[in-house]
């Protein structure tokens, strides 16, 4: 059985994640390395665990989350699709069953807001975990005078939490934004597509997506 620990410690996987992040760094994107994929894996697994999914499904979500961005090694454009193809080769070579490989590959191929659709619980959990990882520490550029809107919005987020309430059947993204750095309108300008996809992902899991920024409910 291919485990999360095996994926996490695999030299090839680590090399692909590192190289993908280096490519994005050269393009001026925020951090997409081990901190990001580790966080996404943790949150995706917590979501499915809270909803009562079995242990193996939870582990497959962690695996999908950990390798979801390796396609950036090829190109940022359509990185979810190229990443899915890379993941297929990795998992097939490791001996993962076709059924489990298909589940992971489908989630990876559908995680990006440009073309993604929450077609499965794994895909939905990956979307919510990935799109909620907005934080100051992901910004590489520390020169505030040269911030573009993506730098400004990410740097303005002091705190972000994704919490599930199984009783109310809601999943809430709560953000604390330093409005002296970036405005709430800036956030919606660049992340509206992501929030729309999060709403669809939550619905796939039988939940309602909620968004709270600086104590004010927007969704």
Question: Would you mind describing this structure in some detail?
Answer:
The chain is built from nine helices and four strands. The mean pLDDT is 97. Strand 3 (208-213) and strand 4 form a beta hairpin. It is of the alpha+beta class. A four-stranded mixed β-sheet has the order 1-2-3-4. The protein has one domain (4-217): Orthogonal Bundle (Hypothetical protein af1432). The protein has helices at residues 4-9, 11-27, 34-50, 55-66, 79-94, 98-109, 121-131, 149-156, 184-204, and strands spanning 157-165, 170-177, 208-213, 216-217. The radius of gyration is 17 Å and the shape is globular.
Task: Briefly say what this structure is.
The protein is α+β, with helices and mostly antiparallel strands. It has a single domain, classed as Hypothetical protein af1432, CATH 1.10.3210.10.
Low-pLDDT runs: none
Task: Estimate nothing, just give the exact number of structural domains.
Answer: 1
Based on helices, strands and strand pairing, what is the structural class? alpha+beta
Main beta-sheet annotation? 4 strands, mixed
The fraction of residues in strands falls at: 5-15%
Overall radius of gyration: 17 Å
DSSP summary, beta strand count: 4
Order of helices and strands: HHHHHHHHEEHEE
* CATH C-level category: Mainly Alpha
The share of residues in helices is: 40-55%
Q: In CATH, what is the homologous superfamily?
A: Hypothetical protein af1432
Main sheet: strand order: 1-2-3-4
Query: At the third CATH level, what is the topology name?
Result: Hypothetical protein af1432
Can you tell me the CATH architecture?
A: Orthogonal Bundle
User: What is the count of helical runs?
Assistant: 9
Shape: globular
Distance between the termini: 41 Å
Provide the residue-averaged pLDDT: 97
């Amino acid at each position: 059985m291919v485990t999360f620990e095996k994926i996490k410690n695999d030299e090839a996987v680590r090399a692909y994640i590192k190289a993908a992040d280096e490519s994005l760094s050269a393009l001026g994107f925020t951090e997409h390395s081990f901190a990001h994929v580790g966080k996404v894996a943790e949150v995706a697994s917590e979501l499915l665990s809270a909803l009562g999914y079995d242990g193996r499904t939870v582990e497959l979500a962690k695996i999908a989350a950990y390798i979801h961005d390796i396609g950036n090694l090829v190109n940022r454009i359509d990185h979810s699709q190229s990443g899915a193809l890379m993941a297929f080769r990795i998992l097939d070579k490791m001996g993962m069953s076709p059924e489990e490989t298909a589940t992971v590959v489908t989630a990876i191929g559908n995680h990006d807001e440009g073309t993604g659709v929450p077609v499965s619980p794994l895909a939905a959990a990956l979307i919510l975990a990935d799109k909620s990882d907005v934080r100051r520490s992901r910004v590489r550029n520390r020169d505030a005078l040269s911030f573009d809107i993506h730098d400004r919005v990410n740097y303005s987020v002091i705190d972000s939490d994704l919490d599930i309430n199984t009783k109310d059947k809601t999943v809430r993204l709560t953000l604390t934004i330093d409005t002296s750095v970036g405005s709430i309108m800036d956030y919606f300008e660049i992340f509206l597509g992501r929030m729309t996809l999060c709403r669809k992902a939550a619905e796939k899991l039988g939940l309602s997506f909620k968004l709270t920024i600086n104590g004010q409910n927007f969704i």
